[in-house]
Amino acid sequence: MAAEKISVQVPATTSNLAAGFDCLGCALNLHNVVTVTAAKPTRPLPDMFAATGQAFFNAAGLEPLPFRVAIKGEVPMSRGLGSSVTVRLGILAALNEFAGQVLDAAQLLQLLVDLEGHPDNAVPAFTGGFAVCSHTRAMTTPVKPRLKFVCLIPETVVETDASRKVLPKKVSLGDATVNLQHSALITAAFFTERYQDLKGLLQDTLHQQYRAQHIPGCQAIFDAALEAGAIAPFVSGSGSTLIALSLKNHEAVAKAMRLAAKAHGLKAKTKILQADNRGFRVL
Fold this sequence. Notes:
With 283 residues, the chain is α+β, with helices and mostly antiparallel strands. 37% of the residues lie in helices and 22% in strands.
């Protein structure tokens, strides 16, 4: 290993964007910095950290080497903002730097997608911008800063694995068709920068209604955001963060969401973000 310590900045992400279950995502200008040190850890690494490192060494065909991990930043854990992908990508990118970039960008991204289990967080964190993706392919586009992501971030945590257990095993053809139509239109709106046309499209029939049941006042918060001028609200990832897309009156939208949350006993803070179009970077 050529260096003692490497730090990697990784953006938060929002995934699904309602109808785009496991295939649409966007990087946000909220970041974690993951610092990997080439040294024996003073205590056992958390399972996810150790598994990520082992996966890298296996993919690179290298003997495992000891390392430590430190994380600083603003991405809250288990709130539907891609905290896990910031850690995994930070570790992978740092170890790849230590090893002389033995994995190219495509290999590194595929390893990240495999570890995450779904691409809608992994791809935008890696590339930046808006991403439409499958497990093996992706297309991305930058997002103009005029589109804001007004985030209501509750104190309540939601584990992704647990939230998936509440989802139905089967859905109707009609429900699946609605989501296909909406996800195609959402993708077109982002790629053509017709953000106003997202109004009414962030409706979902597969997962959001089930996850919303575990977020007090979710629909009231959505209604408040729309009344204050937001384009479209949605559950970020598996929750608990709620996001309203906005082209104007961002502060008013944030205030309306906070007040609606408070009225339903939901303790939360708001952040007004925009897309991160750079993706991860080695500092």
